Each structure stands twice: as C-alpha cells, then as structure tokens.
C-alpha cells in the first residue's frame, strides 16, 4: 500500500504507476502443478461477458501482463491435491489480474471461491503482497523496497504441505 503525504508525492506516485516503474511482487499458492518454472502470462482482462461481478480474459479487454517464477512445488497429500507456490510480478495493474491470469492457465489460487473453489486448507484465497519498490517522492532520487512477511494463516497453510523433491 502506498500513501501520498502531499499533492507532489501523489503526482509522483501516480506517474510511477502509470509508467510501470513501481515493482510489485506477490506470493500465490496455485492449485495443481504448474508446468513451467517461469513465464509470462499475456491476456487482456475485462468484465466477464456473463458474470458481471467477475473479470476474465476477453477480446477487447485491457492489456494485462504478469511475469512469474516457481518458488516451490508441493505433492498431493490426502484430500489436498498438488500445489505450486509462485512469485508473481504484475507488470500492469488490472482488477484481479493475478487471480484471473492463473485461473486462465487452469491453476487458480488455492481457496479462491470466485475463480477456483474454496479450500479446506484455509478460509481465503492464498495471495500475499510481499514486496513493493519505487522511487521516493517527490524528487525520486532514492529507490526504496518494502517487504511484508506472510500472514500467519498463509504460513500455517504452507507448513501443512509436503514439498516435492
């Protein structure tokens, strides 16, 4: 989360977001085994044509780009299937972008009732804003990175999973 303390800072942050120079890193746990170790998802996002409360990859949607890399894979265990932990870097900033992009690959976020399904592993979808980096306004001379540890419920969910070799 970014908060501007004054108008000059607000203009600076708004421009950096528009110019895509703000670096955002999210951690997401996906259902199933994602095939590639890293990649780019390029799919235009807009309102779902029939379910207006959802977003989807649609013709005529707004350009959307997400880069990702696999952090760890987890094996199937009991009622819970295989899972893949990824770092996702949204180049653009569309509504539900990470959720929509991974669901489009057939790997929705664990616990996502909108683009996937609820999970007994946790009571919400597994998506965490891990890192935010940008030039400090208003003069933008200093580059700063801010990190946030996983929330306790997300860490607890990971601790119950068995890493794949």
Outline the structure in words.
With 165 residues, the chain is of the alpha+beta class. Helix content is 17%, strand content 32%. The chain is built from 3 helices and 8 strands. It has helices spanning 7-18, 97-104, 152-159; strands spanning 23-31, 38-42, 45-47, 55-57, 65-74, 83-90, 127-135, 143-147. The strands form 2 sheets. The protein has a 6-stranded antiparallel sheet, covered by helices on one side. The longest helix is centred in the first third of the chain and has 12 residues, at 7-18. The protein is globular. The model has no long low-confidence stretch (mean pLDDT 95).
Key traits:
165 residues, globular, 6-stranded antiparallel β-sheet, 17% helix, 3 helices
Order of helices and strands: HEEEEEEHEEH
Q: In this structure, how is the largest beta sheet organized?
A: 6 strands, antiparallel
User: What's the gyration radius in Å?
Assistant: 17 Å
Quote the beta fraction: 25-35%
What does the secondary structure layout of this molecule look like, with pairings?
Elements: H1 7-18, E1 23-31, E2 38-42, E3 45-47, E4 55-57, E5 65-74, E6 83-90, H2 97-104, E7 127-135, E8 143-147, H3 152-159
Describe what is shown at a glance.
By secondary structure, this protein is an alpha+beta fold. It has helices spanning 7-18, 97-104, 152-159, and strands spanning 23-31, 38-42, 45-47, 55-57, 65-74, 83-90, 127-135, 143-147. The model has no long low-confidence stretch (mean pLDDT 95).
